[in-house]
């Protein structure tokens, strides 16, 4: 088996699509994901899948041992620490880095019911004044932070249906009436029915783009008259020597087409 020329980081649907592009053009690669759920998301690709989180030093050692010639950061738009670790490891070794940027729909949504915020704290400050039953469609990673700012409210969490995520929800004190374990993305019709089913009064979501079903989360809020709080993406800088930015899958495909075999 040939050693991979390229390393991809990311357990997103975008990362899997990038892997499929590489399978099509015949580029050797390895995909690194943080969790077993990320590995499941990538099932069916040709490249090796490595599971587990890595800090900068471990990442640099891993890349060096594998003889990686290029890295693609296709991690989640909100995985700030991971992206910083990747940049540091690549710059330490002098490895070229492509940062994949998932296209955003945030500028396409303007409405009095939509509240755009920069932090979890701001999201919760807005939410506490808008309703009692607050639905989080932001994942489980920062659930503790939301709960600490939403005391006295009924917090409903839509999370991935994995054992570790459910255990974490229970450890945070959420009851079976507050946990909705489902795998998205979902259609607008599904979300509309879901919001009604769980009797949400406020929805908090992320600027997840098309791959994350962002507009499909927002549109039902507007049609139902529900306030929708959007946690905007962190303003990350992806500039510097050896760093190339790819905006969307089409641009990524063009870069891969020119990758030296």
Q: Describe it for me?
A:
The chain is of the alpha/beta class and 261 residues long. Helices cover 38% and strands 20% of the residues. The chain contains ten helices and twelve strands. A six-stranded parallel β-sheet has the order 3-2-1-4-5-12, with helices on both faces. Strands 6-11-10-7-8-9 form a six-stranded parallel β-sheet, sandwiched between helices. The protein starts with 5 loop residues before the first strand and ends with a helix.
What labels describe this entry?
261 residues, alpha/beta, six-stranded parallel sheet, 10 helices, 12 strands, 38% helix, elongated
User: Based on DSSP secondary structure assignment, what is the total number of beta strands?
Assistant: 12
Helix count from the secondary structure assignment: 10
SSE ordering = EHEHEHEHEEHEHEHEHEHEEH
Rg value: 19 Å
GO molecular function: oxidoreductase activity
Enzyme class: oxidoreductase
EC number: 1.3.1.106
Keywords: Cobalamin biosynthesis, Oxidoreductase
């Amino acid at each position: 088996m040939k050693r991979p020329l390229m390393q991809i980081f990311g357990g997103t649907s975008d990362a899997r699509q990038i892997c499929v592009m590489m399978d099509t053009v015949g580029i050797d690669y390895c995909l690194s994901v943080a969790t077993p759920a990320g590995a499941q998301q990538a099932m069916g690709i040709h490249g090796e899948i490595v599971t587990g989180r890595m800090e900068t030093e471990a990442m640099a050692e891993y890349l060096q041992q594998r003889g990686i010639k290029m890295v693609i950061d296709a991690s989640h738009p909100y995985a700030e620490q991971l992206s910083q670790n990747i940049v540091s490891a690549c710059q330490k070794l002098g490895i070229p880095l492509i940062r994949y940027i998932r296209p955003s729909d945030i500028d396409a949504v303007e409405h009095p019911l939509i509240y755009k915020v920069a932090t979890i704290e701001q999201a919760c400050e807005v939410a506490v004044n808008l309703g009692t039953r607050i639905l989080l469609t932001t994942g489980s990673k920062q659930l503790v932070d939301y709960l600490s700012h939403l005391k006295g409210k009924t917090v409903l969490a839509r999370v991935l249906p994995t054992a570790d995520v459910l255990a974490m929800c229970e450890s945070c004190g959420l009851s079976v009436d507050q946990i909705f374990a489902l795998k998205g993305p979902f259609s607008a019709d599904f979300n509309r029915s879901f919001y009604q089913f769980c009797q949400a009064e406020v929805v908090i979501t992320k600027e997840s783009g098309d791959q994350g079903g962002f507009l499909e989360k927002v549109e039902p809020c507007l049609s139902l008259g529900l306030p929708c709080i959007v946690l905007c993406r962190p303003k990350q800088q992806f500039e510097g020597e050896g760093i190339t930015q790819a905006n969307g899958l089409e641009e990524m495909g063009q870069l891969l087409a020119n990758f030296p075999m």
